Amino acid sequence: MKIIWLGHSSFRIEIGNQVLLVDPWLTGNPMLPEIVHDEAVNGATHILVSHGHGDHAGDAVALSKRLSVPVVGIYDLMSWWEGQHEIPVVGFNKGGTVQLGDVAVTMVNAVHSSSIATDEGPLYAGHEAGFMISGEGKTIYFSGDTDICMDMQLMQELHAPEIGILCAGGHFTMDMKRASYAAKKFFEFETLIPCHYRTFPLLEQNADLMKAELDGVNVIEPEVMVAITL
């Protein structure tokens, strides 16, 4: 499989017979040059959205129309988008599993918020979530935006993900210290990729603390548009 960071919390994951765009944020993403936008999304089979905030979901509808692929996420938001924008969707909920080709995606809990900005103020966008993505004999835990929660213990027991993609930038999500604690306390990752960091000065700028805290775990600081092959 190939995991390709698109900056912030956006990823292109090539796994099994699928090309998944996870929380793809292109428009206004300061880490992803416009010249590589086409390369980043070409060949996508599905778009996964963890919650409604613009830095995760802002491009989902436009990309669905442009690429003619379904958006996959929390039932409430998917149903609303389907009605408002007439795009193909796969709506499900926490604890549910959907089969995307030969890849299984289970929605798991996250602790955050979820809304869409409108001229009249925030619009409810269903609950925030994370995903367990299973294919090629491996499971990836994509945390979405979250803080530490005790549900992570159950996630490990039920899914045993070998690969973690954890938000770790602080301020809006876990910081490096809290994400490292979560990884040590609850998970047995072989590989860990931090995200939701480096985008703005407000966020953490490196994963040095995570590398120091997680002895025996392959902590990979991703580079934009550089494939991590696992």
What attributes characterize this protein structure?
230 residues, alpha/beta, Metallo-beta-lactamase, Chain A, seven-stranded mixed sheet
Structural write-up:
- This protein has one domain (2-221): Ribonuclease Z/Hydroxyacylglutathione hydrolase-like (Metallo-beta-lactamase, Chain A, 4-Layer Sandwich), CATH 3.60.15.10.
- It is globular.
- It has a 7-stranded mixed sheet, with helices on one face.
- With 230 residues, the protein is an alpha/beta fold.
- Helix content is 23%, strand content 31%.
- Helix 1 (37-41) links the parallel strand 3 and strand 4.
- The model has no long low-confidence stretch (mean pLDDT 97).
- The chain starts with a strand and ends with a strand.
Brief overview, please?
This protein is of the alpha/beta class.
